Amino acid sequence: MSPLTVVTGGSRGIGAAICRRLGADGHDVVFSYRAAAARARETVEAVRACGVRCEAVPADVADEDGVDALFAAAASLGAVTGLVNNAGITGPVGRLVEVDVSEFPRLFAVNIGGVLLCCRRAAQVMAPGGAIVNLSSGAATLGGPFEYVHYAGTKAAVDAITIGLSKELGPDGIRVNAVAPGAIWTEIHADPDRPARVGAQTPLGRAGEASEIAGAVAWLLSEDASYTTGAILRVAGGR
Ligand code: NDP
């Protein structure tokens, strides 16, 4: 039987690369998106071209009803074996003293609440052998000064959730890990030059590609990582 993996935020960026990579690895994939329906259709077609099943669900991960709809769509295909909590936003960009705090509740609801809601639902339905991978960020340990202290805080929470849940769910045979990317070429950056600027400061001298994060996620979901849980895998060009 094929693995069946739920991915949040699969219409664009790293999430789309993860869906494509998992399809190539033989996973059936059910993913959520928020608004980008045309981009979601492109991901669905690319994944189905790998010969696996793929469905896209318009569902906000910050909303419990949306999470229920996502997992109901997955359940209609079979038993969920994997979850990738990829959906995330940066919130306002700038120094903490200057940013618009009215965006904070939404930031916390998506980046922290969404991860908790999806992990909770996955843990309720997964059998032993299941695996969860959360998208953290290098900012969780670097702190995101001058641009993203508030975002960095949400990603540090993702690290804590990952480590804590790995202990809660380990006895149930479910592994929980995180990937912490460095600067990756996607549309999440308000300044499109940011990946190049940050990437130039890494030992590898460049920003990363979404496919390079997808490879790490695929490994953590795979049997090759069967003794890995509670890990925060930094994929950041050495930064
Ligand atoms: P993008 O902005 O390129 O894509 C975000 C994806 O998440 C889209 O598919 C979007 O859907 C979806 N999404 C956003 N909010 C929600 C929501 N509330 N409910 C459901 N889906 C949602 O981001 P990236 O690919 O760059 O980032 C992916 C993850 O990686 C994030 O968690 C991010 O914090 C993390 N990360 C990224 C880094 C980078 O340099 N790119 C570095 C470190 C971490 P739609 O298209 O419909 O809007």
From TrEMBL:
Keyword Nucleotide-binding among UniProt keywords: no
Keywords of this entry: Oxidoreductase
Family according to the record: Belongs to the short-chain dehydrogenases/reductases (SDR) family.
Designated name of the protein: SDR family oxidoreductase
Superkingdom as given in the UniProt entry: Bacteria
Species this protein is from: Solirubrobacter ginsenosidimutans
Keyword DNA-binding: no
GO molecular function term, any single one: oxidoreductase activity, acting on CH-OH group of donors
